[in-house]
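Quick one: structure for this chain?
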Amino acid sequence: MPRSPDHRDLDELRASVVDAAPSDVLGAVNQEPDDHIGLELAFIGELCVAALRASEGGDVGGQAALVDAVARFVHDHLARWAPRLAELVVEGAQTALYRASGYLLARTVEELARLFPRSGEGQLASGA
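Got it. Here's what it folds into:
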């Protein structure tokens, strides 16, 4: 996984996302090493669930902070290396199941980037 030589960029990003996430969200997914793709996708899922709960509870500021955390994590971290991982999975797959998982990962990252634009690039996309 690409990182800066001193690991500072991704560590700073992770810290900013961790600061934005409620502790119960982090506890639900913090079982694997940080670069484990399953952990990262679960983390995004937990942030989305927390944003939904904030919305349902009328916490507009909390919802906005969580949606922003998802967007930052997707664009500043996941979208930087996961597409290459997906390519490697597809290229190295010896079964249709693993090849499909690579395609699924690639499409998932594309959709996350589309649904959660960076701040200033628009609002959370609708399901259209």
